[in-house]
Amino acid sequence: MIKLISIEISKLVRRKKFLIGVVLLFILSIFITFLGINFQKKNGNTEGIIKHQKNYIKTLKEECKINSGNGEYSDIDSAYKIIIEDSQKEIEHLENMLDENIPNKDRLKMKVDYCEERKKRYSLSSSMVEHYNGEILKSQYYIDNNIPYDFKEGINALDQLIYNIIPKIGQLGLLIIVAVMTADIVAGENKPATIKFMLVKPIKRWKIIFSKFIAAVLSINLIILVLELLMFIVIGLIYGFGDMSLPNIVGTTYESIPPYLIRELKQIVIPIVGSSYLISNGMFLLQILILQFLVVTATIAFSFLFSTICNDSNTALVLPIIFIVATQWINIIKSAPDKGNPVPPSVLNKMLPFIFTSYCDESIIIGNKINELLGITFVNLNFSIIVLLGWISICYIISHIIFIKKDITA
Length: 410
Prior knowledge:
This is ABC transporter permease subunit. This protein has one domain (2-45, 156-405).
């Protein structure tokens, strides 16, 4: 069996579609890495946030033409004034965080105090309260363990890998590229009659189909991992690798809002206050890689099914891509609800978590953010793993049965 798998790997990596997929993955990885670093330099660091807040205040003042000296405000102007004052407090807080004359530990304590004050300020918003709870948990961890905090929020390879490279590759074409690489693994051997030739040999059919599937799973996942590792090393050598032991906020659970309160609160689900907790960056990355492996393997199994069913490799390529594009497009639409007029989750919102393409951004799965985006409450890491394993098992079993019973020699 091992020899058969190695033969299938050797055949797969020489296929034209597979090589095209590798090139596309490489280009996509470089493109996303460049965009992520560029964004972090301009907007993602603390100085960028301060600049953005100042521009925001300037825009608000221009829009409502506030004259801070006359003391007369309309209701709208008064609301703008409150927003501006909050933004100015945020700027003041961030500037204090950048003041290196203040010891790092003291700045962390100042951040905890600021978050506590913000919690009281937004006490009616569970989302804001839980957000600041998470920041307090994180800051307290640094204080308790005497770890210096990077208040500049600079670039490092680990953050880029976790929050940019892996999730963005998934969102911007990974599954489509995987479908391209898998499309003709079975269907592509019909015309040259390779499978017919193999069946003449004393090799059981289940070994043939199983070896092809395992070859695809190992080859494609390994190439993705190698490319991500390459990006990680390049960024790390330039900007630093980051620290695997530092904390990350995850696990927020959500509860539904009664329908009659949805329009008033302008939310469909709210986080349960106190549900978030910390895990290390290393554990966070491990969970992301596990999910990535499963979603890629589910895509392979799905495309493999069509490659087994279809005699033509082009048909085996087009059909999975149509499904992937359509479901990802629906997911994007449903993950961006109208915040001004939210409505209870539709049947489609509740169905999307059962489709493997919903898990291409692993970071929002581990943090359970997907629940807030879709207006649901039941998705977590364990649920995601079960769904993906289900897709892998069902698609492969159907492929297996079809291949065993298919009259290939006819």
